[in-house]
Amino acid sequence: GKNKAYEAGITAGDVIRDTLGRKHGACATLVDSVECDFSHIIEKDCRLEPILEDSDAGLYILRHSCAHLLAQAVTELFPDAKPTIGPPIEHGFYYDFHMEPISEDELPAIEKRMKKLARQNLKIEREEYDNSTLREMFSNNQFKVEIMDDKIGHDIGSSAYRQGDFVDLCRGPHVSSTSQLRWFKLTSTSQAYWRGDAKREPLTRIYGMCYATKEDLAKRKRQIEEATLRDHKKIGKEMD
């Protein structure tokens, strides 16, 4: 690592761009080993490292940001839908919504809206609030309020992330713009329950996959197609 002096108040992203150039391939930073957004303001001496998009940590952040992009698209297309939780998972992400069930035929329209929002290059901004302000902001979504009420296992702090008109309760970190989310595909829907409890509200879960490169996404699509083909052949043999 290089030692370099900067004025206090510079952002982590500015340091990454200055040291690695515009094609830095990073989606967030490690500031003294803590994951931070590019917008994180550097106030004192620290060790700063890039989190590259194609690293495990980078893919986790890309997929988490893609879940937010999905929630933004769904709430624009289905205004009554209430987003609940949307984590990154292996190969991609999912988001659970309290809404009327949808069929997989509707996924292409949602994906199209996600791509439109990505092209709009919306800034993804971290905002800090006290808990009472957050509760007011999410007062029309009982699921988010319940997450705030139940701090155990949900160290949400007091941050939200905004992109365009969409705001979500989140610790982050996230990519700095929707334009960084390019290589994704929605794959399926299923039914879920709030808190995984069949006695609670039924939810619609939408799954997607997300990668750092076009090649990696294509490779994953091929793997799924080949596995499906193998399953069909196996079923065919069993029926013979």
Automatic annotation (TrEMBL):
Keywords: Aminoacyl-tRNA synthetase, ATP-binding, Ligase, Nucleotide-binding, Protein biosynthesis. The keyword Hydrolase does not apply. The keyword Protein biosynthesis applies. GO terms for molecular function: ATP binding; threonine-tRNA ligase activity. Pfam families: tRNA_SAD. Its EC number is 6.1.1.3. One of its GO terms (biological process) is threonyl-tRNA aminoacylation. Residues 158-207 form the Threonyl/alanyl tRNA synthetase SAD domain. It is an enzyme of class 6 (ligase). InterPro entries: Thr/Ala-tRNA-synth_IIc_edit, tRNA_SAD. It catalyses: tRNA(Thr) + L-threonine + ATP = L-threonyl-tRNA(Thr) + AMP + diphosphate + H(+). Belongs to the class-II aminoacyl-tRNA synthetase family. This is threonine--tRNA ligase. It comes from marine metagenome.
